[in-house]
Amino acid sequence: MKIVKSKADLKAALQSYRSGQAKIGFIPTMGALHEGHISLIKNAKQNADTTVCSIFVNPTQFNDPKDFEHYPVTIEQDIAMLTDAGCDILFLPPVTEMYPEGIVSLESYNLGYVETVLDGAARPGHFQGVAQVMSRLLDAVQADNLYMGQKDYQQCMVVKQLLSLRKDNTKIHFVPTMREQDGLAMSSRNRRLTEGQRALAGLLYQCLVSIEAQNGTKSFDIVKKECLDLLEHKGFKPDYVTLADADTLEILEDYSPSRNMIALIAAFIGDIRLIDNLPLKK
Ligand code: AMP
Predict the structure, then answer these.
(1) Catalytic site residues?
(2) How high is the pLDDT of residue 22?
(3) Contact 186/201 with Cβ under 8 angstroms?
């Protein structure tokens, strides 16, 4: 695997691939890699793409400076995992390479409704930060295919909107969420959980499963209250437990069988905010 740290070196490394038949598949990450990230690489490889993975902890998308400070960094391990997975190029830029003018007075994007709800409401500025870094990364990689995890469903929608604003032909692929045995969605932030917190964290997925299981038998109001009560009882601080239209993220007050529905959840356990979601079967 070739490791490059500047956009110029990335361009040079990609030149030989671009002249061939293979498409460029891009997997942006913030490192502290786990099997969820690796499944994105595998998806790209299944499509016979030349794979470019980036590791960049983007300062502009952290609305909480403590979250940024504590974000796990495991670069040696990440390199070993990417090498094993057959990744072709790792783009590992320093902050100055992505933001040569510094991180003040940055551009803003008209991301519309998808930026205003759920994590957008809970984490002001977060999705603008995602758009700022994704725009720079997309310019640098010029990928044919972009692979993103459904675990961050709203982020997938935001990036889809960004691609449309950019009139960018890069094709976005939403990759299903990889989970631990107890259902907990794999996440770099899980490394920060204490043993006790980790033992409880599977509850988020259990809530999602119970929302899906009770579709058609109870009103969502009741199911939502059961989830909130259970989470609070176990010491979580829930941010939201919600049902939305999976195509638009419009919040749904109740189960709406004619729509594609998705259940979404966000809760703090200690100072760690976990999110998860489950598209409901039709
Ligand atoms: P991150 O490093 O958290 O920014 O994530 C980088 C990419 O990996 C994003 O597209 C995430 O949605 C995706 N991802 C994170 N966790 C998972 C998971 N458990 N399963 C599949 N994809 C994931």
Answers:
(1) 37
(2) 87
(3) no
CB 29 within 8 A of CB 23: no
pLDDT reading at 16 higher than 90? no
Instruction: Please name the residue whose Cα sits nearest to atom 14 of ligand 1.
Output: 149
Is the pLDDT score of 44 beyond 90?
Answer: yes
What separation in Å is there between the alpha carbon of 188 and the centre of ligand 1? Answer: 8
| C-alpha 30 to ligand 1 mean position (Å) | 9
Q: What is the mean pLDDT of residues 183-211?
A: 98
pLDDT at 20 over 90: no
- pTM of the model as a whole: 0.97
